[in-house]
Design brief:
Layout (H helix, E strand, L loop, with lengths): L11 E7 L6 H4 L9 H17 L6 E12 L8 E11 L3 E10 L2 E14 H8 L3
Antiparallel strand pairs: 1-3, 2-5, 3-4, 4-5
Length: about 130
């Protein structure tokens, strides 16, 4: 399957969340501040990117994250509303590349690039059956 046949540059999606305590650095690392954790922001960026193209995938196909290059630009407290976007900027045969951003209100708190690989679920699962 060739992603260029059905995924187009410009496709995008957005996710919004209210930062809960369990998504903060302090939740994972004792004595750290209770602010939105970078890995949790990256997770939302990956999910928004996946959301942008999911409806175009044929049954039995998924995408998996393969690359992240993210900057976390500002802290957000518990209770802050964060909006994350993922937008397709390039499509290769099996790789889809995204620009991602995160905002708290109008303030940009993160940005970067993300790539997802197109995978056939059955073949992917078979690869790990013998491990």
């Amino acid at each position: 399957m060739d992603a260029r046949d059905f995924i187009k540059v410009g496709m995008s999606a957005e996710r919004t969340l209210v930062v809960p305590p369990e998504r903060t650095v302090g939740h994972f690392v004792p004595d750290m501040p209770m602010v939105y954790a970078t890995p949790m922001m990256i997770l939302e960026m990956e999910m928004a990117s996946s959301d942008a193209i999911r409806s175009c995938l044929q049954p039995g196909w998924i995408t998996v994250g393969t690359e992240v290059d993210i900057r976390h630009l500002g802290a957000s407290l518990v209770g802050a509303t964060v909006r994350v976007t993922g937008k397709v900027v390039a499509v290769e045969r099996r790789v889809i590349r995204f620009e991602v951003e995160a905002f708290e209100g109008e303030r940009k708190i993160g940005d970067g690039r993300h790539a997802r690989g197109l995978v056939n679920t059955e073949m992917f699962t078979k690869r790990f059956a013998g491990r």
